[in-house]
Specification:
295 residues; alpha/beta; 5-stranded parallel beta sheet; 5-stranded mixed beta sheet; 10 strands; 42% helix
Length: 295
């Protein structure tokens, strides 16, 4: 590609306390030719707190106009502009607008760089008291109850620590669903209003956290959940084998493939897993056992 292209800068912004803003953020805000902000009003409050005055053009870039505005920003980048992308809190594209623009810029061989900043995911992990050597970020769960349960079942056997974002008005339902799928005694931490005046970290079994959240919770929420305990073949009964097969089937695998996968992950003979599934299927035909079974 001929000519000199610009640079896309992804800038991390404070998740609460504006004093946490990285020093480079102020310089980039003043230097950028274009500042694309998730909420221009919040950007104005941030620049006032930092004492900076953006010299470039400021425009909105949020979920509702992300698809339509991306080509405009790419065109500016191809023309040599330095485009700064900021969201309301944290790093752009991480459960926030930005992925489409980054992908489009990469496709055009445009330079993409970042100004690292505060992260709700890493802050919550560090404060949770749960293992942090391995973790996975699951973002926001679906709003509909059935879809939410399905997504949770997909990671029911995940051994890494899990991190979620959640809206305060859905927190009680989400924690109750987690207790149902992961187990009532699975440890977790609810991190609320991180780095803000009323920061709070509530730790305990999922069942206790669900009861606490039922009373009403406010603020920005990050949930950290302990990974599944490692189990050996001796710890697995037939019901657990059937449950694992069901989880995989609900995620889209065919039963034969699910049985083979469960056999591999548990170290058990495939025939043993198959027999457990067949026994559960026959029991379901004769009558429901605890309301569950394979059809």
């Amino acid at each position: 590609m001929g000519g000199v292209t610009g640079t896309l800068v992804l800038a991390g912004t404070p998740i609460g306390d504006t004093a946490d803003a990285p020093p480079r953020l102020a310089a980039e805000l003043e230097r950028a030719d274009v500042v694309a902000a998730e909420d221009t009003r919040r950007l104005r409050r941030l620049t006032q707190a930092l004492g900076v005055h953006p010299q470039g053009r400021v425009l909105s870039y949020f979920e509702g106009n992300e698809s339509a505005r991306t080509p405009e920003l790419v065109e500016a980048l191809e023309g040599g502009a330095r485009v700064l992308l900021v969201t309301d809190a944290g790093m752009p594209s991480v459960s926030d607008p930005g992925y489409r623009l980054v992908a489009a810029a990469v496709e055009k061989d445009i330079k993409v760089t970042a100004v690292p900043g505060p992260s709700a995911v890493l802050t919550a992990l560090a404060l949770s008291g749960l293992p942090v050597d391995r973790f996975c970020f699951e973002g926001f769960l679906p709003r509909k109850a059935g879809e939410r349960l399905g997504r949770l079942r997909e990671v029911a056997d995940e051994r890494r620590t899990l991190v979620y974002f959640e809206a305060p008005h859905r927190l009680d339902d989400t924690l109750a669903a987690m207790a149902e799928v992961f187990g009532a005694e699975r440890r977790a931490a609810v991190c609320r209003e991180l780095t803000k005046t009323y920061e709070e970290v509530k730790r305990g079994p999922l069942k206790d956290l669900a009861a606490w959240a039922a009373e009403g919770v406010r603020g920005e929420i990050t949930v950290v959940v302990e990974g599944a305990a490692e189990t050996g073949p001796a710890d697995l009964d037939a019901a657990e084998l059937v449950r694992r097969v069901q989880v995989r089937e609900e995620a889209g695998e065919r039963r034969k493939e699910a049985i083979a996968a469960v056999a591999v992950e548990t170290g058990l003979p495939k025939r043993e897993v198959f027999d457990a599934v067949v026994a559960a299927k026959n029991a379901a035909r004769q009558g429901p056992v605890d309301g569950k079974g394979l059809s």
